[in-house]
Amino acid sequence: MSFSNYLVILVAGIIFIYAVFKQRSKSYPPGPPSLPILGVAHLHPQVEFWRTYAEWGRRYGINGLISFHILGRRMVIINTMEDAINLLNKRSGVYSDRPFPTMAGVLMRREKSIFYISYNERFKMYRKMMQRSFNPTAAQMYWDIQDHEARILVDNITKFPDKLVEHLRRNAASVIMKIAYGYPVTRNDDHFVVTAEEHLRIGSIVGRPGKWLVDSIPLLRFLPEWFPGAGFKRQARHWSEELYMQFLEPQNWVKDQIAAGTAIPSFTSTFLRPSDGPPADAETEDLVLWAAGGLYAAGADTTVSAATTFFFQMMMNPGIQSRAQAEVDGFFETEKRLPSLHDQAALPYLGSIIKEVLRWAPPAPLGLFHCTSRADVYKDMYIPAKTTVIPNIYAMMHDESIYPDPFVFNPERHMGSNPQPDPRECAFGFGRRVCAGQNLAETTLWIQFALSLLTVNISKAVDQDGKTIEPEIAFTTAIVSHVKPFPYQITLRSEAALSLCRDFGVYMNDVSKKFHRSPENSPDLSEADFLARKQVIEAVAEWAQGTGMEWPPILYLYGVVKASAKRERDWGHLVFTDLTTMRFLLVMVFPEECGCGNYSHHDYDALAKFQADRFMSLATYLYHDENKPHWVRATYVTISNGYALDPAFLQSVDTPPNNDTGKLESIDMLLKQSGKSVPKIMRYKVLGSKDARPEVSNVWKSKNARQCAECMKTSTKDLICRLIHYCSRECQRLAWPTHKLVCKKTDKVQGLD
């Protein structure tokens, strides 16, 4: 061997020794004592990992930062807010990836999952879609849904108080399913909800650290399914197929609704059939499928966790509950209405309670795991590439140096001139992986808590001897942690508030109860008129029961559908709507024929079509664009057919109307035909306390006098719009930014647009 060859070997050896020495000299963050190969597998807890990680951080860590490995899989635990901000926020370019575990990721083929996807172009597309749909401004379009479902929640709690958590789960599921798919949840055992809950259960099992040996020894994934001990592969394949179908089924339901013209605006329908472009291609459909599927997993269980903690803490702290109730009571007594999401600034103590709920028991104590995309050095500590980085949110929220007396539930820590750090900065994640639905989560909790505090009282349960039962404070162990079931008792505290909660949505005009009575108790209707309408209402109710969706009858003033109304209290024809108030059934009731021989005004088919078009035009004009009706289906009943509905009418296939947009130009004429009875359409959207809104309350005090939509004073002046009135140019100027969103029939006014 030549001298040059020896020299090459010598240099290579020196380089190798230097590399090994340098690698060994790199100092990982400290951690608990570990064993060769096993690491800390023998020490790793089986429950409430976050508590153990926090203790290890105090005992072994540098400012709480620790690291360890389990069978070669290295993890870094961040236990302080300072390190989380420095690493996950300020160095997000390094710490924005996700670990891709073999079981939950590779074997279950979850590379497209919003929770496991790498920080790549597809992830950026997900974030863009989420930001477009759920930014603070866009999220307001879902406030009606959240308000509606919160009222249902309160109603259910008062009816069945022993099923609190079940009601919270139904509420969270209904909100998410409506937002994600426009799908109405009418039963607790709804198929889509049951499958989505199964998705959460599977996700909790496969995501548990240390549960699957294949995560630590990835080579095991190459074992054939029939091999002894390889049952995990069969399970992964089964779960993968099951989870994909759980995403696909609701999306296919939305596509069917779009094809039928009955799709309710939702996250999925917006991207599958955008208003400003062609239908989605296959690639976009796949993006929407995985993004929408992740909404339920991200939003439903975490909301239930926080809401359960709220009720638990109100029970444990009656003084805090009383103070919060006094705040909402004061609002209720002053404003003479229920609080809405427009009133968040008016209830600051409630806002502090929400912050303290998220701090005291963060729904995801360990957040979602991050992963380093390349090696990094932090405070002279080496963090290799592909290291799993876990933010211990529980430890951050219970850091005594930031939150004194961290285990005490104290909303006042978030109030005053010097509040403690806002826990929402940590509770919803970090960096480029922060929760995109934070606005939805906060507003859902706010309206739930506000209406619950106003309506009910929760206290500790008592045993048979009348002694108070002291509940145990314990939590489940999963990605999303919950307070374990606890004994309690709920009592009604405000009949008035509950009554208003039950008058939500179309129920404000639901006339079903009237026809549960006898004809003699309805002096405004003759017996024949009463029984005719009762028969129609019962027929529609029987049909609706078979569809699984409610279709209550809503009473619009007679003048809306019959131009010859003589009095406002006259009963006209019946209008039925589903709970979206976007689809209508119009049943015209003709109690008798005059026998004049002139059948031109007895062409009931033509009358039904005309009144359906007329109703459609009025509703389209007064509703917001996103809430305008999709269709109105009309028919009639007469005394000659015994007021019997044709079954074919109820079973008809619904198609979108093909109304001439020019009908909107004649809207004022239609209103004049109705006399002074302006249609009472309850489902128009209010964007804020100073919003312009259609005048629909019959408040005209004198001839040509109308109520200003801004200051509510009466004036004869009529500026800008023929349906929305202002008493002065100043009121007009104040209301214009929201007016132009509410009313599409406005004239351009210089200096206002």
From TrEMBL:
PROSITE patterns (alphabetical): CYTOCHROME_P450, ZF_MYND_2
Segments crossing the lipid bilayer: 6-21
Cofactor: heme
Family: Belongs to the cytochrome P450 family.
Identification of the protein by name: O-methylsterigmatocystin oxidoreductase
CDD domains listed in its UniProt record: CYP64-like
Domain MYND-type, first and last residues per copy: 708-743
Assigned keywords, A-Z: Heme, Iron, Membrane, Metal-binding, Monooxygenase, Oxidoreductase, Transmembrane, Transmembrane helix, Zinc, Zinc-finger
UniProt cross-references to SUPFAM superfamilies, sorted A to Z: Cytochrome P450, HIT/MYND zinc finger-like
GO function terms (MF aspect): heme binding; iron ion binding; monooxygenase activity; oxidoreductase activity, acting on paired donors, with incorporation or reduction of molecular oxygen; zinc ion binding
Positions of heme binding: 435
Pathway: Secondary metabolite biosynthesis
Organism classification: Eukaryota, Fungi, Dikarya, Basidiomycota, Agaricomycotina
